[in-house]
Design goal:
Order of helices and strands: EHEHE
Helix content: 25-40%
Distance between the termini: 48 Å
Strand order of the largest sheet: 1-2-3
Structural class: alpha/beta
Shape: elongated
Strand content: 15-25%
Radius of gyration: 14 Å
């Protein structure tokens, strides 16, 4: 069976992230039930330097949703910052 992985870059997505995760979870549940994808498929939310609560939301979702994984990209501040 196919293992599906979706990579979603995130930057300051706190207002829509939980809704996006819920929609993707519903889609994954449907595809798993129809045996189109395996149950170990996942969404990887990649936090790319967000200044809001995006990373904390990703961590929370990861703890409660088996489809959600997270990656935190860290960039050091520029000398001008």
């Amino acid at each position: 069976m196919i293992k599906l992985a979706i990579v979603s870059p995130c930057y300051n997505e706190e207002e829509v992230l939980e809704d996006s995760a819920a929609r993707l979870t519903a889609l994954f549940d449907e595809l798993v039930a129809k045996e189109k994808i395996s149950a170990d498929s996942f969404v990887l939310f990649v936090n790319d330097g967000s200044k809001d609560r995006t990373w904390s939301i990703i961590k929370k979702l990861h703890g409660t949703n088996p489809y959600i994984k997270g990656c935190l990209l860290y960039t050091s501040p520029s000398p001008r910052d």
